[in-house]
Amino acid sequence: MTHIMIKDKIEELITRLARAIQIARIYTEEHDLTVKSIDQLDQTLNDILLEKGEITIGIIGEEIAFEKEPLYELSMKKKGFVKYLKSIGVKKISFQNGLEKKELFQFTKILGTKAVPSDKTQTLEQRLYSTDITHIAIGDIGFADQVKVDLPLENIQALPRDNYQKNVKLLTQTFKRLKGNQSLNVQSARQIVDGLINNLLKNKNLLLMLSSIKGYDESTFEHGINVGIFTLLQAEMLGIEQKYMTNVGMAALLHDIGKLTEPLEVSNGEEDVSDEESAIKKEEKQILQDVKGAKILLDTEGINVLPAIVAFEHNIHFDGSGGPNRLYGKDLNLVSMMITISDYYDKLRRKPSFYEEGGPEKAYEEMMELSGKRFHPDLLNNFFSVIGVYPPGILVELDTKEIGLVIQASIMDIKRPQIEILYDENGEKLKEPFIVNLAGKNNQGQYLRTIVKSITPFDKNVF
């Protein structure tokens, strides 16, 4: 099926979905009109799923969008449908291969029936998950609101945003349970890691973009998810076998588990100590955290020893300084050294002053200065070959005065990623954004475009 044919089918899908939901609001499941509308919707979905495997449609602003482009004409015709979906909190609908007709009956009925008073405590997603529907997901795209600009759906449609938020909640519950002197829920942690690995296999650039969405406004638990993303991407680039990836992801996710046992903040009785004494006490508490974290993981059944090693080692520098003294061997574990890099980078990125201090380009310079000291030089180079100096999801200003969104790093030149131009040189938002490769040159061998600086997505001078 050509792109035009798929686009036509998508428009047909949306039209039939809107009709099926409207009919579900009026007629019973057994009514001839209901049956016919579901049959037509099922036929269209099957035609597309045979070609695509998964379909995600979303609402960005007032437009229905699929992949790269908003469907302007269809959005005009379906204004009522768009308004209705937004009114019930649906900004994204995903359909997966294997979808059965009975799931469509249930789905259209749920979307066609607004919650009754007794259901006020139950969200639409919860109502959906309480059924037998397993091949349809709904949610809020979320990314466009964070960046304050309507982005083409190609860049965000596959972002597992809902899964990301669920993973954060699941990790929060797991850690709170552990802090309450209950055992670590290993299955919950493994479920999160398996989800990250699955998304990595689908599209690593979109997974990286996901980690850039919220910037510094994040919780400790989101930090754990981000460290997992960065570390799994490093492992994939190094060629680590798939069978070891779950253990690598578990180690990344649980690397800071010792924080549950010992707060790092200086107590009130220590306020008058000097900066040097305060730093020493903080380092001592950090070491205690890491030792206790390793012990928790060693005492937990059903978990590989690697997470315990990483929890103990991840604050030890490549040159041997920092963190607890090594108790065995001459070298740090490979995964510990990868997680040290991921952990440090994400902490830099989460600082409120991240962009004021120079953004990702400054983070790159700072970390490269620590190469061979805090970080393993080859692993650090590998890390930036994966994410680039400007990771996917970062907004940048070019020497042409254009503004674009980084969508893919380049292994050939980590400072010249592929970007999508969103604003022209006059600051006007483009109706049709386009993708450029910053490695492109003119006939004289000069680069056509070069990044001047990264910019915060919340900069009022830009958006």
Major sheet strand order? 3-2-1-4-5
Low-confidence stretches: 115-121, 141-161, 213-218, 459-463
Main beta sheet: 5 strands, antiparallel
Termini separation (Å)? 38 Å
List the helices and strands and how they pair.
Blueprint lengths: L2 H22 L7 H21 L1 E7 L2 E4 L2 E2 L1 H6 L1 H9 L4 E5 L4 H12 L11 H6 L6 E4 L3 H5 L13 H19 L6 H17 L1 H8 L8 H19 L3 H12 L21 H24 L7 H8 L20 H16 L9 H11 L7 H11 L7 E4 L4 E6 L9 E6 L5 E9 L13 E5 L8
Antiparallel strand pairs: 1-2, 1-4, 2-3, 4-5, 6-7, 6-10, 7-8, 8-9
Helix pairs in contact: 1-2, 1-5, 8-9, 8-11, 9-10, 9-11, 9-12, 10-11, 11-12, 11-15, 11-17, 12-14, 13-14, 14-15
Q: Would you summarize the structure shown here?
A:
The protein has 463 residues and is of the alpha+beta class. It has helices spanning 3-24, 32-52, 72-77, 79-87, 101-112, 124-129, 143-147, 161-179, 186-202, 204-211, 220-238, 242-253, 275-298, 306-313, 334-349, 359-369, 377-387, and strands at residues 54-60, 63-66, 69-70, 92-96, 136-139, 395-398, 403-408, 418-423, 429-437, 451-455. Strand 2 and strand 3 form a beta hairpin.
Characterize the structure shown.
It contains 17 helices and 10 strands. By secondary structure, the chain is an alpha+beta fold. The protein folds into 3 domains: 3-140, no CATH class; 161-387, Orthogonal Bundle (Hypothetical protein af1432); 395-455, no CATH class. The strands form 2 sheets. Strands 3-2-1-4-5 form a 5-stranded antiparallel β-sheet. A 5-stranded antiparallel β-sheet has the order 9-8-7-6-10. Strand 2 (63-66) and strand 3 (69-70) form a beta hairpin. Helix 8 packs across helix 11, helix 11 (220-238) runs antiparallel to helix 12 (242-253) and helix 11 (220-238) crosses helix 17 (377-387). The longest helix is centred in the middle third of the chain and has 24 residues, at 275-298. The two termini are 38 Å apart. The model is unreliable at 115-121, 141-161, 213-218 and 459-463 (pLDDT under 50).
